[in-house]
Amino acid sequence: GAERGRGKMAAGGAADAQARFGHSVKGLLTEKVTSCGTDVIALTKQVLKGSRSAELLGQAARNMVMQEDAILHSEDSLRKMAIITTHLQYQQEAIQKNVERSSNLQDQLSHLLK
């Protein structure tokens, strides 16, 4: 009779150990799943941040191209303005010479008319 009792206790102890093992495995699995979920969320955030960075870099590149175009356009305008300024200076000199000539002519005319 004692052996049967021991057999039942041993079987009960084994079942108990198996249940504890099952619980610890479930606990580990839950922990791993939670950890994996956290990693997936972190990875998703990183990917989104990366795509946002790429988007910002693209925008910055487009802005730089637009600014470069504006700078080139301004440079071209300045070159044209320099040419116009030179022409205006020549015209001013020509007008000044004509004014001097006309005042000389007026002096000559006034001498002739006296």
Automatic annotation (TrEMBL):
Its main location: membrane. This is BLOC-1-related complex subunit 7. The keyword Thylakoid does not apply. It comes from the Eukaryota. Belongs to the BORCS7 family. Keywords: Lysosome, Membrane. GO terms for cellular component: BORC complex; lysosomal membrane. The keyword Flavoprotein does not apply. It is found in: Lysosome membrane. InterPro entries: BORCS7 (IPR032143).
